[in-house]
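User: For my dataset I need records formatted as: sequence, then structure tokens, nothing else. Please produce one.
Assistant:
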Amino acid sequence: MKKLAVITFIFLAIIGFVAFILNPFQAPSNVDKTEIVTLDTDSDDVVGLKLKEQGFIKSQVAFDLALTLKNKHNKIQSGGYYLSKNMNVWRIINAITKGPDLKWVTVLEGMRKEQIGERLKKTFGWSDEDLKKWNEVYTAMKYDYVEGVYFPDTYLIPVKEDGLQIALRMINRFNEKLAPFQKKFSEKNIIWTTGLKIASIIQREAAGPQDMPLIAGVLWNRLLKNQKLQIDATIQYAKGKVGDTWWSVVTPSDIQNIDSSYNTYQYAGLPPHPISNPGLDAIKAVLNPEETKCLYYLHDYKGQIHCAVTYEEHLENIKEYLN
């Protein structure tokens, strides 16, 4: 009996020891609830710490050990992951080393939709046909949504979303951001599509937010006088991609020879659609333009803006600041 008791004790001790060793590798919870966890670094140490702080693992030490044993080559990529607290360490590691379930995409202020499409293609591994659908189908289904409504922001996008879903996601963000300004547009009798066209020009023409109210004032002055806008950025949009850039330098030949409704040197009024996707500063500038008599402006080589009331004054500014 004594021998049996000793054997039983040793057996239970071994079971207890194994349980003690394995416990840190077990799931922290029995609740099967999927959550999105964002991992913004490829540092394994930081990943383990974040998972521990958010309650997805019991022990950072156990996680780091398991990661070393399981994954010797692949770095954990930044992005979003579908995880649950009922997953043990091994399942967590399998999930985060296969690649993110959601990826970050940043749309910069002033990008045109084709630039956004190129960024999406690179991020999600789109084919040329996928990119063509983005440019010609998904972003061209409604007249007022051809350009300008793909709001500049940082998005966490599921890798399984297609181009149409992503376009709708960005449009929804745009509608959300524009909503507080809709009443102000109505109060000033500005159709939101008109405001968006002007904002898109301001976004491309300004050297920074500090320039935007003055440029808005100049554009409104020209429009109210029925004067041609004569904006280089609209011609850049009409030119499309030249070499590796979508915004190539405008030449006198471009001004004379590009027959496009976006050529605001040849055609009066605003172009048919926005020329970029503007941010909130540009939209605010449309509603709050600087009061000015200026009809012309330029930026010097330091990015400082200079405006002029008459064309003669503008020529003097060109001579002083650009030649």
